[in-house]
Design a protein that fits this description.
- The protein is mainly beta.
- The protein is built from one helix and 50 strands.
- It has five domains: about 120 residues, Immunoglobulin-like; about 110 residues, Immunoglobulin-like; about 200 residues, no CATH class; about 90 residues, Immunoglobulin-like (Sandwich); about 100 residues, Immunoglobulin-like (Sandwich).
- It has a five-stranded mixed β-sheet with strand order 12-9-15-16-17, with no helix packed on it.
- The longest helix has 16 residues.
- The N and C termini lie far apart (about 95 Å).
Length: about 650
């Protein structure tokens, strides 16, 4: 237990310390007394109380702080206990100290709370008016043994091979501002640098490395100089291991899964195309980044020295084919705007041309202009909501693809990437993926291309069988008069459509069609083969009302006059339509009809259409086909197509 004399000495010492200025000499202990301070360097431990022989001597000492020196009796087996502040248990450190008379000691609490322990160092506080005195104490549990050198990794060694819990002897140096380099013991690679370290003559310093190298916790590695002069309570942070965040996005379409190492340490394992690693926290400095096939240290497909500045977020995009793989490095502006969505675009498809990204279709407002391969745009703020985005060749209104229903959410930050290739000869289709830059930066979603439905109808009476090609890709073959392909799903946008003589490269019809997202079209090959052309109609497939069917009529007989479609009593259903003219879809009562095709404005019946059944809810196209005086399959007739 403390004696009354010891309590009186403690209070007297504290009073004397408080009365001293920073320039006052060290308060000398009496011949049978020692001076002791506690430095809290247990990075995840709470504030602590320190008991001496069961009585509280120091209260509420927080991490990174020194208690200052207290005067204690010189003794053997002086019991020191450390507990969380305000409690008497658990006792996280218990140690018996041997204190010699007229000596000074530092008790340094180190390691994590679960393994907390005391390192006891004898302090040589006798100052030299013409030199600075400094020692080094290693209190960072996950840091390796280190050397401390002057200026750089090849500089003069001040402290050598100091490992965790190591306490170096004091050395004397000239006053000045120093650059100190921390390297692995025996190595020259600088893992941490302290710049403009001020050392003053007459001052005595204990320089302590504390915290952890794990940048994903809240205890950053730092180097603190504790002042051993005077009260021993002062300290100054010389440097902290500042951090950056970095993620890697694998956009090299034919590369295998990869590992990514930073300064020789594997940071990311098995990252596959086209995924994001998510953000990892790394030291802010120039780092060597190497990308290798997963599970292997060779070959290094990307090797680059990259500068990562403090408190910034980066993405390293791996782009191009494996044989030409390279990094694109971006600074990510991840600060959110809760009332806007932020979006940027990266062109990572090596064989795709420069593109514009527009709202709606090829004629829409330009969001990103003339983005060529490896172009990464700045972020743009837009209102949240659903968008159709059209990708067009730069400066063109022809949509290569339309991204349908892109949902942008206010407060989210997006990187939209075009990836894969345009080549139909490989298995790496051109497509688009949006990565979410918020939070851990790992999430991503494929943005589907919008599709449209196109039906091709062979309505040229004397034309041979034909093949259908869309963007030079075969979509149907051997189509004969008067049949149709049914609806074919194709990409929305501007599509090149060819109708070739079946089995040949002879093109009978070629047209660029601008098809809107989720829309339906019918393309009719019409007229005699000598004059064959395309008639493109938009198909409104809105559901008929109950009890109704929708019907449209098209005049596709090349040599027939204008016609009316009537009921037998002459009531006109569709009136006065000439070759290639058509009606809109018209609601008719469901039922069975006898219809007549008459020369327009007359009672002359050119064609009887008996027993035409229109079902409730169905949609039909009826077209007049063949030649007026034709024979066999090319004779004048009518064709009915069900559109739904």
């Amino acid at each position: 237990m403390f004696s009354k004399k010891l309590v009186l000495l403690l209070f007297t010492s504290l009073f004397l310390f408080a009365a001293c200025s920073e320039d006052d000499p060290v308060v000398s202990s009496l011949p049978q007394e020692a001076q002791v301070r506690v430095i809290h360097a247990s990075y995840d431990a709470p504030a602590v109380d320190v008991r001496v022989n069961s009585s509280v001597a120091i209260s509420g000492l927080a991490f990174g702080k020194s208690s200052g020196y207290a005067t204690l009796p010189a003794a053997t087996n002086l019991n020191i206990e450390v507990t969380p502040a305000g409690t008497s248990s658990p006792v996280v450190i218990q140690s018996n100290l041997n204190l010699a008379a007229a000596k000074s000691y530092s008790v340094i609490a180190v390691n994590s709370l679960n393994s907390i322990e005391a390192v006891v160092a004898e302090d040589n506080r006798t100052s030299n008016a013409s030199k600075a005195k400094v020692r080094f104490i290693h209190a960072s549990p996950d840091a390796p043994a280190v050397d401390i050198k002057l200026n750089d990794g090849n500089g003069a060694v001040l402290f050598s091979s100091t490992s965790f819990k190591g306490v170096e002897n004091y050395i004397e140096v000239d006053a000045g501002n120093y650059t100190l380099a921390v390297t692995p013991a025996g190595g020259t690679t600088v893992v941490f640098e302290l710049q403009n370290v001020p050392l003053q003559n007459g001052m005595v310093y204990s320089v302590i490395a504390q915290g952890t190298l794990n940048l994903n916790d809240n205890f950053p590695f730092e180097v603190v100089a504790y002042i051993d002069n005077d009260l021993g309570i002062q300290s100054v942070t010389l440097g902290q291991l500042l951090s950056s965040k970095v993620r890697v996005i694998h956009l090299s379409y034919d590369a295998p899964s990869v590992d990514v190492s930073i300064d020789g340490n594997t940071a990311i394992s098995g990252l596959a195309f086209p995924l994001s690693s998510g953000y990892a926290t790394i030291p802010s400095k120039t780092s060597r980044v190497e990308v290798t096939p997963a599970g292997s240290s060779t070959p290094v497909v990307i090797g680059a020295d990259l500068q990562f500045d403090p408190n910034k977020d980066y993405t390293v995009f791996a782009v191009n084919s494996l044989s030409g793989i390279e990094p694109i490095v971006s600074v990510d502006e991840r600060a959110v705007n809760p009332s806007k969505a932020k979006v940027r675009f990266l062109h990572a498809s090596p064989d795709a041309p420069a593109v514009d990204i527009k709202v709606g279709d090829g004629n829409g407002a330009v969001l990103f202009a003339n983005a060529s391969f490896k172009t990464l745009t700045s972020y743009l703020e837009v209102d949240g909501g659903p968008y159709n985005l059209a990708v067009t060749p730069a400066g063109s209104n022809n949509s290569v693809v339309i991204l349908g229903g892109v949902q942008l959410v206010n407060g989210n930050v997006y990187t939209v990437t075009a990836k894969g290739t345009f080549s139909a000869a490989d298995n790496f289709d051109f497509n688009v993926r949006a990565f979410i830059d918020n939070d851990d930066g790992m999430a991503g979603v494929e943005i589907p291309f919008s599709n449209s439905n196109v039906k091709v109808v062979h309505a040229s009476p004397d034309a041979p069988a034909v093949d259908l090609l869309v963007d030079d890709m075969l979509k149907g073959s051997g189509l004969t008069f008067p049949n149709n392909t049914g609806y074919l799903e194709i990409l929305s946008g501007t599509r090149n459509v060819k109708v070739n003589v079946s089995g040949t490269s002879t093109t009978a019809i070629e047209a660029d069609l601008n098809v809107s997202p989720s829309a339906n079209y019918s393309v009719f090959a019409v007229d005699a083969v000598a004059n064959i052309s395309a008639l493109v109609l938009s198909d409104d497939l809105s559901s008929p009302a109950a009890g109704k069917a929708h019907v449209r009529f098209i005049h596709l007989s090349p040599d027939a006059p204008a016609v009316d479609v009537t009921l037998p009593d002459g009531s006109i259903v569709f009136g006065n339509k000439s070759f290639k003219e058509f009606t809109e879809f018209t609601p008719l009562d469901a039922g069975t009809y006898n219809l007549e095709v008459r020369v327009a404005g007359t009672s002359t019946v050119a064609l009887n259409l008996n027993g035409i059944t229109l079902e409730d809810g169905k949609i039909y196209t009826v077209f007049a086909r063949g030649f007026l005086n034709g024979a066999g399959d090319s004779a004048l007739g009518a064709q009915i197509i069900s559109n739904n």
